[in-house]
Amino acid sequence: MKKLLIIPLIFLLTGCWNYRELNQLAITTGIAVDKENDNYKITIMIANSKKSSSSDDSITPSAAVYDGTGQTIYEAFKDTSLSVSKQIYLSHIDVLVLSEEVAKNNLTDVIDFLFRYPQTRNNFYLVLAKDKKASDILKVTTPLETFPSQNLAKNLEITDKLQGFTYTVDFTDFTKSLVSEGINPILPSVTIIGNSEEGNKEENVQQNEPSTYLKLDILGLFKKDKFVAWANPNQSKGINIINNKIYILGVIIDYQNEKIVTEITEMKTDFKVENNKVKITIGATGAIQEVNANVNLYNLKTIEEIQNSDVEKIKEYVNDAINLAKDNKTDIFGFGNYVYKNNPKKWNEIKDKWDDEIFPSLEVEIEVNLKLQAKGSINNIVEVRE
User: Fold this and answer.
1) Distances from the Cα of 327 to the Cαs of 123, 330, 333, in angstroms?
2) Phi, psi (rounded to 5 degrees) for 210
3) Burial degree of 192 (CB within 10 A; 0-12, 13-18, 19+)
């Protein structure tokens, strides 16, 4: 008898206690955080579930954007929910956009809220709004993706692989850098090309050449939880080289008053920290991709000269990145983390003065081993004859 009574009880206990019908949820795909008059301003982008059933794209937008303000992140979210007829659901966030002001002064509040909030997952990307409000970034429409937040996330993923000056940072990566010993975080940035007010109109999607669009920009440096500086494009490349975030890198050099482009497709960086000195070793393989000079690529001396120039350019990127980090007293490379892992006792003695005193005074030695291939045909270069 006992077994017969237990069986129906098991069926009664199955199911999810927090189950919600899909049509009761406001699926949030993007969040932007700004500061306005000492209050937080939260902007959320919600997928429009009616879009899939509508045959008129010009009438039914793919997403809706709502704002809320409050003295705390929690209060701002609650204020946002007053304008939404469904329960805000944060498990499908693609991207979190932070204003520069929030990144400088209030980042911990945002991270702490999202870390504690039970719905959020940790695989969404973080990005800084450069020279713009975070809310404006989130509102720019695009013809390539259904939601602007989705467009930004896809752009980060593609550019991460094809360019050398930015890379993706998700919530897990960022929080790990915040709490790890001897390393500080970095975030990519995005800006708006064109008129911000025109960018959030549906007409922007319908143009062959959108008047307003988003463009990924340089890296932002943090010291602990505070934004401290922007890296220029070359410094951003140097940061990525040291941090092993390079998939493809274009190196442009001047040769015989013309330009030669080498594409680096394999790059691996190692470093060691000993006795107040960092030894950085970079291995790379590249191929000559574009030649605007009338040179003989079958001449070994010519190849050697181009290769040496490429090596010097890579060293320049790395030195510029290190000098920027030293000037701002923030170890974004994990040199301190190397000491922490390899000599914990010494790290405990120096960790309190690492960023401000020891890191800026480190001697840096850079070695680049580049294997260059002369890629090309048709008599080395294409000549136009009139």
Assistant:
1) 32, 8, 14
2) -55, 135
3) buried
- What count of other Cβ atoms lies within 10 Å of the Cβ of residue 118? 7
Homologous superfamily of the 234-373 domain (CATH): Nutrient germinant receptor protein C, domain 3 (3.30.300.210)
- The tens digit of pLDDT for each residue in 17-39 reads 454 555 677 788 889 999 998 89
Q: What is each CA distance from 234 to 205, 221, 250, in whole angstroms?
A: 33, 14, 11
Q: Is the pLDDT of residue 95 over 60?
A: yes
Delimit the CATH 3.30.300.210 region(s) of the chain. Answer: 234-373
User: Cα 217 from chain centroid?
Assistant: 9
**What type of residue sits at position 130?**
K
44, two tokens: 């959320």
Q: What is the pTM of this model?
A: 0.83
Cβ contact 198:149 at 8 Å: no
Q: Give the Cα-Cα-Cα angle 274, 278, 280 (nearest 5 degrees).
A: 130
Determine contact, residues 145/100, Cβ cutoff 8 Å. no
- The tally of CA atoms less than 13 A away on the side-chain side of residue 20 is 13
The Cα 7–Cα 237 span in angstroms is 63
Residue 337, pLDDT score: 97
Give the pair of three-digit tokens for residue 335.
């040199």
Nearby residues of 139 by Cβ (< 8 Å), 6 or more positions away: 43, 45, 65, 148, 196, 199, 200
**Single-letter amino acid, residue 314:** I
d(CA 255, CA 291): 9
Triad 150, 156, 161: Cα angle to 5°:
135
Radius of gyration in angstroms for the set of CA atoms belonging to the chain, rounded to a whole number: 25
Query: Is 178 within 8 Å of 107 (Cβ atoms)?
Result: no
